[in-house]
């Protein structure tokens, strides 16, 4: 009996193990193999990360103060300050240049005016040599410059005294001595007028010798 049972067992094919779906070559066409679905991002994990980033940004803003709101704001403020300083320096330099130029222009105008005054004062003494008191009187009336007027007064005073000396010489011609006096007065008039003109051209109001201030 045991031998018959063993033979039957050896002849019968073994049953498929439990959970087996059949041979490897056979498959059920209706069976669909399910693929694992892609993992979806966990919103719960993303939200804390965003919250941490916001907290770090806020803490950095509070620690840095008003200038740390953006990474480029502090350099921008420094660049603006540097640009303002450069503009101020340029404006100051321009102002200095304008002041220097204005001062030089004023000095040149004053020098030109002074040269004109000295020239007119010198001409006044030459006019006195040829026109007697008429030329200096005209200059005294027309000119408003005190230096020119002072030279005109000196020329008038000398011409008045030169006339007095000439009259005295004319009277003395009766004694022959008057001729030499008149020649001497004429020579002194020429010398004094030339010297006064040179002094006036140099900016000096020269007072004639042998003369009192009558004007």
Task: Describe what you observe in this structure.
- With 215 residues, the protein is mainly alpha-helical.
- It has a domain at 96-201.
- It is built from six helices and no strands.
- α3 (73-131) packs antiparallel against α4, α3 (73-131) runs antiparallel to α6 (177-201) and α4 (134-142) runs antiparallel to α5.
Distance between the termini: 182 Å
Give the topology string: H per helix, E per strand: HHHHHH
Characterize the largest beta sheet: strand count, sense, and whether it forms a barrel.
none
- Strand content is under 5%
Give average pLDDT, whole number.
Answer: 72
Notable traits:
mainly alpha; 6 helices; about 220 residues; disordered N terminus; about 0% strand
